[in-house]
Hints:
The chain is α/β, with parallel strands linked by helices. Helices cover 42% and strands 14% of the residues. The protein contains 13 helices and ten strands. Strands 4-3-5-6 form a four-stranded parallel sheet, with helices on both faces. β5 (123-126), α6 and β6 (144-146) form a beta-alpha-beta unit. α2 packs antiparallel against α10 (239-252), α8 runs parallel beside α13 and α9 packs parallel to α11 (259-266). The structure holds iron/sulfur cluster. Iron/sulfur cluster is lined by residues 85-86, 181-183, 185, 232-236.
Amino acid sequence: VVFNKADLRAPAANEIERLDRGGIPRVMVSAAAGTGILDLREALLRLAPADFFDNRRLVSDLVPPGEVAVLVVPIDKEAPKGRLILPQVMAIRDLLDGESMALVTQERELRNALTRLARPPALVVTDSQAFLKVAADVPRDVPMTSFSILMARFQGDLTEQVRGTLGIERLKGGDRVLIAETCTHHPIGEDIGRVKIPRWLTQYVGARLEFEHTQGRDFPGDLSPYALVVHCGNCTGNRREMMSRLHRARAAGVPLTNYGLTIAYSLGIFERALAPFPAALETFRGARV
Ligand code: SF4
């Protein structure tokens, strides 16, 4: 139950008691004063039906039935042995569900793969770490994005995270940046969260930044010490939790972006990587002016 006009009067004590007895959540808001809105959003997130979070498509809405998506999957020493990672598997399955096709290739075979198609693919999806090479090899008129950006849309709120990406522009030397991952994998070699993103962000900002890392459920309750949160694609998590993290960041006034968006931005190919998502691209262009 939402009690509006909380700035004018409080609900009767017996009314509150009745709701509490029935286990019915209550939120006090004042639309006029703008108070309680964040509590209301949090309550809606908790109560929204599972369908609201689960009934979404990862990529097949971008690839019409019968059309081809090219998936670029680097096999480097960070890739798990003998298997694909979850976002890649999810993309293939979703394309099959959508009655479209997936052509999976490593980045060094991409040009060759494209020449073998009778017509251009509807979409190219790459691991974000191969963005630059893939952007160079894919013709400008072929839409291109990354698995991580697809996950930002699927598991969270792409438009909100696009706005969060603009927080990179405000970073300055000494700022604290939180890099958050949903799973607890052991970082090896040139790990994307531990090594590559800190390197690309530092190069972009041109000053030393303080990086901190969290994994699993250790996401901090208080985000206010951070100038930016960079979140992974949350492939092993669920959308409800990701929306809650986004909400927490918004409440703290801290921009939250994700791996793929950060990489595309730092490498100067942000607009190209957002081209398949017109609303998000428009948000970016509008927020920049
Ligand atoms: S949960 Fe995050 S860090 Fe772990 S594999 Fe998925 S995207 Fe990568």
